[in-house]
Design a protein that fits this description.
By secondary structure, this protein is α+β, with helices and mostly antiparallel strands. It has 2 domains: 3-150, no CATH class; 154-290, no CATH class. Helix content is 65%, strand content 12%. It contains 9 helices and 4 strands. The protein has helices spanning 3-7, 51-64, 86-99, 107-121, 128-200, 207-218, 222-238, 246-266, 270-290, and strands spanning 16-24, 27-36, 41-46, 68-77. α2 links the parallel β3 and β4.
Length: 294
Amino acid sequence: MTDASVSSSSFESMTGFAARTAALGSRRLRMVLRSVNHRGLRLHVTAPLDAELAEEVRRRIGEIVRRGAVDLLLDPEYASEAVAGEAQAFIAWRRTCASEDLPLPTWGDFYARLAFERHSMGQLALDPEETSKLLSELDKLAADFLAVRRAEGRRLAVFISGHLNEVRGVLADLRAAIPGEQDRKLARLKDRLERLRAEIDPGGRGDVARECAALLERLDASEECNRLEAHLAAFEDALGPHPREGRHLDFLAQEMQREATTLAAKCLSEPASRASLAIKTALERIREQAQNLV
């Protein structure tokens, strides 16, 4: 699978950020929308709005976001001395205190006063025109937010595709080495069998030989390679023009990790062990990124 075909897919990351400032008459409203990973959808809205408008804001954001821990912050920027130009307001307050022979306030005192003033202002009183303007700016913020999540999702898909190609290449080399790996295992078993046959199987019934054959069959890594290749094909299909959701990709990555763990246990030679370790490392990176997709 090429990076170009993956980058054109409509993947969406759970990580996103967008910010806008809405002008509502003489006031300005700082709007910040951000999200990180979450098993489902957790939407938290912090806004000085009445209950009806706050519910409408939640509904609009909930319609466009399927998964993630999403936080929406609407922060008023009032045109008062305490909040417009913090440095100038702080200096002016200290001068006033000095002229009145009062203790000079610190930055901590200033921010405590600022928080009190914002809390005292309470909910925003918006007329119908300002409410319409707020919702319009909110829709633009949501569009910017989705664009960021989708761009990040495409980058993650390209990253995952590169590691899938890495796994496929290492797996091909490992499969080519399996016959030699089996021959080495058989040679070791034969050597031990010859040394222990007289003691363990004096009657010559062939019990040890049958056990060794069964053991050699269990150590054959061909089945794990076949299943791993099937999972790789399914994962690549899921990254195609009709991508599956992140939970499905996470499940496939988990299944591939299980096969890779069994494969590593069956690889006895040093080159095969290194190859299986490389596969497990790449699959771990794949799963980490798949868990960030919606």
